[in-house]
Amino acid sequence: MKLENIPQLKHINANNFFLLAGPCAIEGEDMALRIAEKVVSITDKLEIPYVFKGSFKKANRSRIDSFTGIGDEKALKILRKVSETFKVPTVTDIHEVSDANIAAEYVDVLQIPAFLVRQTDLVVAAAKTGKTINLKKGQFMSPESMKHAATKVTECDNEQVMLTDRGTMFGYQDMIVDFRGIPTMREFAPTVLDVTHSLQQPNQSSGVTGGRPDMIETIARAGVVNKVDGLFIETHFDPANAKSDGANMLDLKHLEKLLSNLVAIRKVANQL
Q: GO CC annotations (predicted)?
């Protein structure tokens, strides 16, 4: 994958990690623009290549009454507005084959959720759009097995593929990151560490996923030290009231300090 093939991606020659960051789900236009404006300001200052992240719908929910979205077209139009307003690329999840061509009209990167990364028809449909594809490693999969997921994309004549580790199931209600997987997956494609989802505590009896946001910097630092190519961080200005995944998101007010520390670590790691 070549970063320069992602439209509007800036700072690609800064020798930094790239960043996929934003809210878990698009809750409305004002919140999306507010978050994007802040993250763009920080990443421009630190020269971090930045892709705005926001799910246009949430299909994988614990409970039937969980928030799933504000409407597909409405959310996708907001993602387009973020891109046009701040001149940054955008990424969103897709869940069904029919989502691929629809979402590709609005965003620059299509993301395959971890639970769906073995769904061949979905991966192929995404690949055939010609967009950059982010494949999230299943919580139940080995790093080595992601080679086959990446191959499904490249055999569709699409070399724009990256892999994301988002933790591995550790019992019923916890995740763990095996950092041995980073160099393994980097052999197949540029590799991203999903910091916030790696700290989820799923399958709670309440039906609401928990998390450990206090460990975000710990996991992110370890990823940067191990020369991960990119970081994935969900962030919100009011995580407690976010409509999805608030329990493991980073409060937006802490993002600049975190990224500043990580950029400093990256500079040292680049010298090793």
A: cytoplasm
